Amino acid sequence: MCGRYTLTITLEELLMRYGIDETTIPYSPKYNIAPRQMVLAIVHDGSKNRMGELSWGLVPPWADDPKIGSGMINARAETAAAKPAFKDALKRKRCLIPADGFYEWQEIEQNGKKRKQPMRVVAKDRSIFSLAGLYETWQSPGGDKLSSCTILTTTPNELMKPIHDRMPVIVHERDEALWLDRSVQDPARLERLLAPYPSHELEAYPVEAAVGNVRNDDASLIAPQAEDEQLRLW
Description:
Helix content: 10-25%
CATH topology: hypothetical protein yedk fold
Shape: globular
CATH superfamily: SOS response associated peptidase-like
Strand content: 35-45%
Low-confidence stretches: none
Largest sheet: 8 strands, mixed
CATH architecture: Alpha-Beta Complex
Number of strands: 13
């Protein structure tokens, strides 16, 4: 799955990366982005890329209660085209979710006991990358609207296999325009984009347990775990 990620670059870098002229959305670096928070997403309006905010946890238009979004932070790439909650969005409402790292918890054994070690996965060159997202808009009986999203996941690459049995779909920069193209509505044309990202372009390192608390959100969370602590763990 993908349940936490980071976006720590400057606003100028973000706008330049996606070819966006300007935005009125408040922005600050985020070190511990979690479900149900408002997250940045990139869509294409037919002429240019636009950036907006979506609630992380997709709420389908037919849902009776928006709380359903809590269980829809991720969508399996292998089955999204057949799932009622995701199939329409996969055809018409795809987005890119900017990130420069994501967290996963690896089960390890320490002193004869199993525990979860948080790991941060980043591009080797520390560049920003795009997570494959789907979005929808839900409207309450009173007319209030909620725009929300989910992150697609796929099978793990060789780097991720020891860490977790799923990983987020990362869209290659060369394929971002295709993913955002609303005229492409045949899921078969998108299948190759949903493969695990190449291991040799990513790396993972352990971070401190403080990342497990969603209230923590500062630069210390992305610092590599202290070497003496790593020695005790590994």
